[in-house]
Amino acid sequence: GAGAENDLYINQAIVFIEDAIQYRSINHRVDSKSLWLYRWYYSRTCQWILSLTITVILALAFIEEPSSLTITSDVRYRLPAWNPPCGLTESIELLCFLVFVVDVSVKSYLIGWKEFWKNKWLMAYILTLIVSLADWIVSLSFFCKEGVRIRRILRPFFLLQNSSMMKKTLKSINSTLPEMASVVLLLAVHLSLFTMFAMLLFARTKGNQQDKEWVVYFRNLPDSLTSLLVLLTTANNPDVMIPAYSKNRAYSIFFILFTVLGNLFLMNLLTAIIYNQFRGYLLKSVQSSLFRRRLGIRAAFEVLSSLKEAPASAQQACVSVGALLQVLQKAEMDSRCKQVIMRSLKICSCDQLSAAQFQKLFEELDKDGIKQHPPSPEYQSHFMQKMQFAFGHPYFGYLGNVVALANIISICMFLVMDADKQLSERDDFFLGAINCFFILYYLLEVLLKILAMGLKRYLSYPSNRFDGLLTVILLILEIATFAVYGFPHSGWRPEFMGLLSLWDMVRLVNMLIVFRFLRIIPNMKFMALVVTTLLDLVKNLRAFAGILVVVFYAFAITGIMLFKGAVVPLGNARYSNFLQGAQNSKAGFTGSCVHIRPVISCKSSNVIFQGKKCDLMVPAHFQAEVIYCLLYVLSVHLVCRWAKIYFVAWWLISSVIWVNLFVALLLENFIHKWDRRCQQESVSDIEYQRTVELMFRDVLEEPTEEELMEKLHQHPHLQLCR
Asked: Could you tell me which residue ranges the Ion transport domain spans (predicted)?
């Protein structure tokens, strides 16, 4: 009867409020059983299981053949990697697929059949699972010996579809692409024209010995295009110019014009367009998130106003304070927001809340997260009060920074003096004694700060936690050093004992001391502003990191499949054993990821190995692979030509598009913090924590009541009383 109906309304309100907190859509089933299933699905346990499953299936690439389970990547020294037997990773995959099948089934049921056909992500999810399962069956039928595994490339989709913020970011990127295309097209025209100029300017002449520029860089159209494309990244600058410049200084004008137009104008213009367009599309995405939150809160109000206990004589819909308190007690939300809302309700003089009052209560969700530091202890003793004043004063922290700087300078002096000495000639007595003194001071400083501030207040500051943790680690290392090697004395050079030698222990201590010097950052306002901006990006822009992981993973797997067995030994007897081992132990997923990573920063594009008809682009730090490729570069003639397309595509996606998007959000975050630095309270006891949504909060528009009610009446599963 009425009691069961009221319980349903309460449960609906709870779910709608939780949807509003998480910016989720409210277009799902709202009957009792579906609400229970919905809350169970979005519980921490289920979401943790789903996240763990995604992590496991992505991590399989590290142990699948070719395995990356080797310490070194040098093919000359590494042992054969362990490859799992057929059926082991496939069994783990099957378990993961079963979890995904349950996931997509629950999602499809909860939103309903009508909404399912509108949801392209769910349809793509099902298609990905079907293709992956079909490929899994094919793999087992070939006893895991098949050359191509399509499901490995599709795995990043499971990560992508599980994050609403990643999907919004991807949608914003997709909307930005048409505006990017105009500049990219202009960049292509710039590259093509200068390629033609270069082929005409550095054409072959009669004296072949003087045509080094033509021989090395501009022999034909693909080589010319590749050379200038790499020059656009400045990776082969000034190498590409040196042969022509040696012949005639005037040739430098060509390369200077190309670099100035390409790098200083077009690339920066691309960054400006990406910043402007993407900021607009991301703002629209955040605006839609705000609409979802307001819609969830309004839906909760509407169902609570339908309770049987609501006064029938009320001229407008209202919600009782008691019903809202009951909902808040059961809803999963931030404890700070819940306490503030419940406190506001308790001091409220009215028993009924209108729609405007109800919405205003939940505006607490939109405010900055504020962390209040605990108070300092109150000492009765006059001596202790003086101690607290002295060691709690900022000047005591400045003194600690000066001492840390002195420690850094002493380490630098000893490093300079001992740079050319052999390990047997070193005397670690003075450095060990000095470090011991400084570490004792650091320990004393931590104890005095705890005395002045109290343990809870001391630990509430991130800089103090950082300082205290490193001090404890330094103290443990110093005690371990004394226990194994004794106290410092003249000629302190004992033989290797324990896990680490004395020199290794001293080096580890010195590295931690240098790292500890970062404690000065909170004392420098501008540096602290920059660091907090970066930390906010790390905490709040996880969607960008997730998309980068997706792209990294897909390109790494694609690279493994495309270039597997591309280099074939030609029978050189001297290197046959080495190369046979290299051929058998192919580069795994880790090597593939490390291989393409430097292209993001454009540090490896200039490494071009030339055979008679082949240019192979390989990162410079792969020394063993360099030897391998140089010896047998002729055997990859056809593969190398097409390999350029793979690396150029990776450079365009990672370096040109993604890095510029990251710069755009970095600028937005920094400008926002810079504009607000004077508006926030200059009180050291308050810390502000902001999210991506709060970053744009000042420019967002509130939805009108008509828009909210129109959207609610379109709900496929909710029937409102009015």
From this structure: 52-278, 393-670
Nearest to 299 by CA among 4, 14, 6, 693: 14
> Which of 35-39, 130-134, 167-171 comes out lowest in average pLDDT?
167-171
Q: Which residue has the tokens 């500049």?
A: 183
User: What's the CA gap between 288 and 700, in Å, rounded?
Assistant: 10
What is the 3 state secondary structure string of 398-460? Answer: HHHHHHHHHHHHHHHHHHHHCCCCCHHHCCCHHHHHHHHHHHHHHHHHHHHHHHHHCHHHHHC
Cα 51 from Cα 158, distance rounded (Å) = 10
Would you say 103 and 129 are in contact if contact means Cβ atoms under 8 Å apart? no
* Mutual angle of helices 525-540 and 659-676, in 10-degree steps: 130
Element housing 68 (H / E): none
Tell me the domain boundaries of the chain. Answer: 43-162, 172-285, 382-523, 537-567+598-679
- Fold match, 172-285 / 382-523: no
Q: Where are the beta strands (DSSP E) in 157-296?
A: none
Report the residue count for the chain: 722
CB atoms within 10 A of CB 650: 21
Residue 191 and residue 188: Cα distance in Å, rounded? 5
CB atoms within 10 A of CB 315: 5
**pLDDT single digits (tens) 217-226:** 888 888 888 8
Between CA 450 and CA 463 the distance in angstroms is 13
Angle between helices 321-330 and 2-21 (to 10 degrees): 60
CA distance 480 to 503: 13
Backbone angles phi, psi at 26, to 5 degrees: -95, 5
- φ, ψ of residue 141 to 5 degrees: the values are -65, -25
CATH of domain 172-285: 1.10.287.70
**Alpha-helix residue ranges (DSSP H) falling in 517-603:** 525-540, 542-563, 576-584, 589-596
Task: Give whole-number Cα distances, 547 to 163, 465, 662, in Å.
Answer: 10, 32, 11
d(CA 10, CA 5): 9
Measured distance CA(145)–CA(86) in Å, rounded: 9
Query: What class is the 382-523 domain?
Result: mainly alpha
Q: Distance between CA 107 and CA 112 in Å, rounded?
A: 9
Token output for 618? 């390989």
What are 569-579's pLDDT values in tens digits? 444 444 444 44
pLDDT per residue as tens digits for the range 7-33: 888 999 999 999 998 888 899 999 999
Q: Which of 196, 258, 267 is nearest to 231 (CA)?
A: 258
- State the CB neighbour count (10 A cutoff) for residue 661: 24
Q: How much of the chain exceeds pLDDT 90, in percent?
A: 15
Tokens of 110: 């909860």
* β strands within 259-318, DSSP E: none
Cα gap 37→97, rounded to integer Å: 21
CA 353, 356, 357, 362 dihedral sign is positive
597-645 pLDDT tens trace: 555 555 444 443 333 333 334 333 333 343 334 333 333 444 456 777 8
